[in-house]
Amino acid sequence: MKLKIICPSCQKEDNLENVLTAQSNQNVIYECPQCHFTKRNIETNKG
Questions:
Q1: Distance between CA atoms of residues 6 and 32, nearest Å
Q2: Are 29 and 47 in contact (CB under 8 A)?
Q3: What pTM, to 2 d.p., does this model score?
């Protein structure tokens, strides 16, 4: 089962691995392949 992420800008959905990039500092970058909306420095909990 693949997780789907919905873009907050255009509402298109895509697979998690296609839209999220993990950084070494535990932050995540989201980029929509449809409308190119980008959200940087999404903080996550290490676990």
A1: 9
A2: no
A3: 0.79
* Encoded amino acid at 24, one letter: S
Per-residue pLDDT, 46: 64
User: Span 18-41, mean pLDDT?
Assistant: 92
Per DSSP (E only), the strands in the chain are 4-6, 13-15, 20-22, 27-31, 38-43
Least confident of 11-15, 26-30, 35-39: 26-30
Distances (CA, A) of 44 to 12, 34, 41, 47: 23, 24, 9, 9
| Residue 42 to residues 1, 5, 39, Cα–Cα distance (Å) | 24, 14, 7
Asked if 22 and 28 touch (Cβ cutoff 8 Å), the reply is yes
